[in-house]
Design a protein that fits this description.
The chain is an all-alpha fold.
């Protein structure tokens, strides 16, 4: 008991430091960026290693699959072990895997490194709850919001950075710089983070079994995860094929493809406003609005053949802003819905939600590259639009079910 009080006292001492919160935001951003650096670099990787479009598509597919596996099988350890130790181990592993990827010379080692990078990059999902624990009383929302802003910027600006660096210096240099950034973050985390109290004595198998129980117990969790998963398929299909499409259709390099990430960042930065909107309209309503925005943004790209080259590029930018805003707004609202189901199990609920999300990301990468080969960019736009419609249908059915429940009880 005294040891736990000592940990809490140490935590409180760190909580007042803006420097610590900034470092956590940077840590979340840099670590999650590791799973997105490849997307604008795929044409460069393909040319260097003589990969087909399907082979290039496997790189983001396995990276996203690794992230999903890491969330499902590694995140529950945060309830059983000191989060500081887990963050340090994952940062060291991630830096080594990124460096190894930069040195690979053939497809099999590239794909293995991509899978391992995805698994280790889940340190971002260890950092977010660590920020909530370190936050001063009454400021948890603001603190977590700051760290989540870093995470969202890492997701979207990673493509811009990797596109520019890849075109100027090659894709291998980008991965080497990424390894250096994670090594730096690991050292900083070691210096600023206190040790965290362990809140569960469950064995690892028991933790996993409890997640299965949560999944079975809450239909609202399953519907939220599936709806966000379909939106993630659309998101990933777009970003996994954009660089190839821009090169083939407009002869634009990876730097331009990465530049579209800035447009996405503009949409994502507005997403935290969805939290306030959810308080006024209800989280369920915000998920519906988010799905509508994603669907409409993708459907607008069916108008591309009617426009000139500059008009087509402008339309892609507008669509990227719209669907990123819709996706992130829907995610914030879905998290609010899921966290309210059982507050003491938020970590495992979060793991289940994000497992389905990143399964969707992996499916989006695989489906997007294959459909692009078969049906071109129009096929990718059709896939994304259909996924948005399915997500909206799931949320509408859930809304109708919730609305009918009080009437049935009466």
């Amino acid at each position: 008991m005294n040891e736990e009080r000592l940990m809490n006292t140490t935590t409180a001492a760190h909580a007042v430091s803006r420097w610590v919160i900034l470092m956590l935001a940077l840590g979340a951003g840099f670590s999650v960026a590791s799973i997105y650096y490849a997307q604008p670099l795929l044409p460069l990787m393909g040319a260097d290693l003589h990969l087909s479009i399907e082979g290039m598509g496997l790189v983001p597919t396995l990276t996203q699959a690794g992230y999903a596996l890491g969330i499902l099988f590694l995140l529950p350890l945060g309830d059983r072990h000191d989060r500081r130790t887990l963050i340090l181990i994952k940062s060291a592993a991630l830096a080594l895997f990124l460096l190894g990827c930069s040195l690979t010379g053939q497809i099999h080692s590239l794909l293995l490194a991509s899978l391992l990078i995805g698994m280790a990059a889940t340190m971002a999902q260890d950092i977010v709850p660590a920020a909530a624990i370190l936050a001063p009383e009454g400021k948890q929302g603001k603190t977590v919001g700051t760290v989540m802003t870093g995470l969202l910027l890492g997701i979207l600006l990673s493509r811009t950075v990797s596109g520019v660096v890849g075109e100027a210096f090659g894709w291998r240099v980008m991965y080497q710089l990424a390894a250096g950034s994670i090594a730096f973050i690991g050292v900083v985390m070691w210096a600023v983070l206190p040790r965290f109290a362990v809140h569960s004595t469950l064995s690892y198998p028991a933790l996993l079994r409890s997640m299965e129980h949560l999944w079975r117990r809450y239909p609202a969790l399953r519907r939220a995860a599936l709806a966000q998963g379909f939106l993630s398929i659309a998101f990933s299909a777009f970003w996994s094929t954009l660089a190839v499409m821009l090169l083939e259709r407009y002869h634009l390099g990876s730097a331009v493809a990465g530049g579209f990430g800035i447009a996405g960042a503009a949409g994502a930065l507005a997403a935290p406003l969805a939290g306030g909107l959810a308080d006024k309209l209800g989280a369920g309503k915000v998920t519906q609005l988010g799905a509508v925005l994603v669907t409409v943004s993708f459907a607008l790209m069916f108008l591309m053949p009617a426009l000139g080259v500059h008009g087509q590029l402008i339309l892609i930018v507008v669509s990227a802003i719209g669907f990123d805003l819709g996706l992130q707004s829907s995610l914030v609202a879905h998290q609010n819905l899921v966290y309210s189901l059982e507050p003491q199990a938020r970590g495992r609920l979060n793991a289940l939600l994000f497992t389905v999300i990143f399964i969707g990301m992996a499916l989006g990468s695989a489906l997007g590259s294959n459909i692009y080969t078969l049906a071109g960019w129009t096929g990718v736009v059709a896939l994304a639009s259909v996924c948005g419609i399915i997500a909206l249908a799931i949320r509408m059915i859930e809304s109708a079910r919730v609305a009918s429940a009080p009437a049935e009880m009466a």
